[in-house]
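F.,

This is the one I mentioned.
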């Protein structure tokens, strides 16, 4: 039982003993910095129970808690706020249990299975800035859920079929002249993306040509020769036409090699990968089942749909009139296949908020089809990333490419780090690794420190700063701790000495740091419940900032009392371990030197 749980139980006991009543509104919060105390209980809600003024009620409860909870050293009352001062001995005993250890516990053997889907790329273009936020968010959420005690399966769905894929294929076939990644020097995903843009350019030209002949824009878009060819190719693909399938296999192979290189650079991975080209068939089987149950219906044009108007939604097409599938078809199939293979308790889809409606429909369809596990489906809806000049458009080639972005961040980190003189004494290989660690760390932290639900404006210049709420600031303070520990070991092996052989009187900042370490478990649970890496990011920044102030204001190796030197070194080491592990939850590496 942690301290807050104990205080909650004792407060309930106090209300029963003092007033013969109970309350479900017992909640503690961190004491306001303007008041003296560590934890505060708001007692206004208890005045009706006590039939006393809030101040008197707070004094009653405070007196009871101080008499019955040894950890409480003192209390004070400010209007209806009961501020509790926790004894130094409690914080020192807590620190003794975590000294030089990680605050992250192993995953229990009977942990529930949770799947997290992220990185849902199309094989017609390279990864871009929007994918970067998606991937980093999903990967970090997976780490956080694992740390919170879940068995997590990281998964991806690759949209490797459909009209958009056929567009790239048609364009390469008509305009590519046999170009390959080897002959062009381009990564495979970049090469295929080039022809997706090429299709759009020629398609728009055809539309304008038809409009000049008096044809309406709607008809021109529908009957443009390139679009008709792409639609015909999709039908040929679903009919297993060998030539089309061979072209599809070759071009997708180029893209997969490109994606793998990008994922490696980003430092992310997956436990499983699903392909729309496989799961859409299972989706069609589900549709047959839905028709047999009468949940789905067939229109006069032979398209199949579900009527969700009674649920406040609309009619959703699940198979087109020509029998070809839509995104929803493969999502139905993929969900069922994952449940059969993993038996998940929860499946989290990491997808931008532009797809909110899609997932409402998906989850509702699965429930109406009678799948009880559909209650465990959740859409982690996040705000889109925008540029100062507006939204990105892949088909127009106005995206920030993920590979280019990562390289720019590494190059910028190199410039900044060299200018600050933080590479002295490093070999060229060590310096290059440092630039990558700082650059990619800055990118990841910038993406993750903002609440996922919020739209964000990408500004790389703000992310690489050794001051403020940034990864480089946190990384620098971790390096500072490692340098301190290395220097300490030159004098004596402090790690072999018992830090608790003497009575330690905590400085206010030391107490704050231990309280911060104590709060990690609550922050982790909240981050897991809310699926928000931002809570971990900002916790880690606060911990690093508190240590930075402590390091600046407090003598450590220059302290005269050896027991205080010993305690402060162990405190620094423990903070360093947990900065590293917290950054690891965000997928961010910390350097040992800079």
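My design for it:
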């Amino acid at each position: 039982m942690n301290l807050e749980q104990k205080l909650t139980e004792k407060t309930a006991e106090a209300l029963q003993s003092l007033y013969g009543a109970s309350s479900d509104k017992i909640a503690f919060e961190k004491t306001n910095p303007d008041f003296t105390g560590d934890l505060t209980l708001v007692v206004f809600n208890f005045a009706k129970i006590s039939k006393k003024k809030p101040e008197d009620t707070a004094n009653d409860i405070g007196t009871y808690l101080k008499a019955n909870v040894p950890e409480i050293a003192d209390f004070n009352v400010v209007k209806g706020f009961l501020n509790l001062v926790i004894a130094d001995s409690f914080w020192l005993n807590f620190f003794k249990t975590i000294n030089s250890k990680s605050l992250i516990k192993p995953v229990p053997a009977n942990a529930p299975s949770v799947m997290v889907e992220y990185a849902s790329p199309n094989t017609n273009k390279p990864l871009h800035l929007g994918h970067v936020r998606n991937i980093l968010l999903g990967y970090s959420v997976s780490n956080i859920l694992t740390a919170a005690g879940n068995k997590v399966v990281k998964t991806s769905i690759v949209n490797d079929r459909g009209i958009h894929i056929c567009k790239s294929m048609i364009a390469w076939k008509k305009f590519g002249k046999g170009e390959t990644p080897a002959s062009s020097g381009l990564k495979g995903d970049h090469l295929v993306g080039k022809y997706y843009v090429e299709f759009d350019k020629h398609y728009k030209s055809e539309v304008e040509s038809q409009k000049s002949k008096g044809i309406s824009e709607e008809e021109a878009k529908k009957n443009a020769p390139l679009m008709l060819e792409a639609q015909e190719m999709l039908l040929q693909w679903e009919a297993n036409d060998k030539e089309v399938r061979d072209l599809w296999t070759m071009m997708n192979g180029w893209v997969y090699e490109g994606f793998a290189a990008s994922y490696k650079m980003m430092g992310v991975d997956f436990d499983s990968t699903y392909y729309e080209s496989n799961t859409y068939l299972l989706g069609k089987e589900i549709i047959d089942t839905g028709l047999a149950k009468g949940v789905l219906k067939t229109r006069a044009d032979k398209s199949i749909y579900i009527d969700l108007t009674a649920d406040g939604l609309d009619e959703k097409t699940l198979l087109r009139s020509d029998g070809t599938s839509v995104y929803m078809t493969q999502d139905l199939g993929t969900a069922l296949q994952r449940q059969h293979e993993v038996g998940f308790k929860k499946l989290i889809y990491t997808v931008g908020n532009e797809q909110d409606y899609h997932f409402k429909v998906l989850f509702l369809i699965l429930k109406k089809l009678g799948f009880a596990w559909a209650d465990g489906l959740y859409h982690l809806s996040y705000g889109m990333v925008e540029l100062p000049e507006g939204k990105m458009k892949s088909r127009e080639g106005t995206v920030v490419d993920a590979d280019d972005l990562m390289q720019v961040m590494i190059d910028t980190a190199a410039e900044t780090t060299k200018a600050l003189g933080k590479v002295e004494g490093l070999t060229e290989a060590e310096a290059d690794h440092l630039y990558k660690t700082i650059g990619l760390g800055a990118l990841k932290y910038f993406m993750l420190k903002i609440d996922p639900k919020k739209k964000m404006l990408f500004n790389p210049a703000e992310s690489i700063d050794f001051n403020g709420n940034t990864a480089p600031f946190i990384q620098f303070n971790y390096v500072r701790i490692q340098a301190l520990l290395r220097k300490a070991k030159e004098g004596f092996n402090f790690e072999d000495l018992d830090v608790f052989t003497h009575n330690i009187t905590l400085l206010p900042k030391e107490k704050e740091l231990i309280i911060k370490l104590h709060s990690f478990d609550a922050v982790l649970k909240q981050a897991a419940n809310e699926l928000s890496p931002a809570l971990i990011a900002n916790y880690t920044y606060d911990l690093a900032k508190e240590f930075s102030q402590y390091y600046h204001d407090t003598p450590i190796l220059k302290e005269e009392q050896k027991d205080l030197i010993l305690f402060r070194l162990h405190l620094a080491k423990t903070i360093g371990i947990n900065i590293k592990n917290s950054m690891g939850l965000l997928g961010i590496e910390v350097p040992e030197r800079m």
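Residues 250 and 456 are 36 Å apart (CA to CA).

Talk soon.
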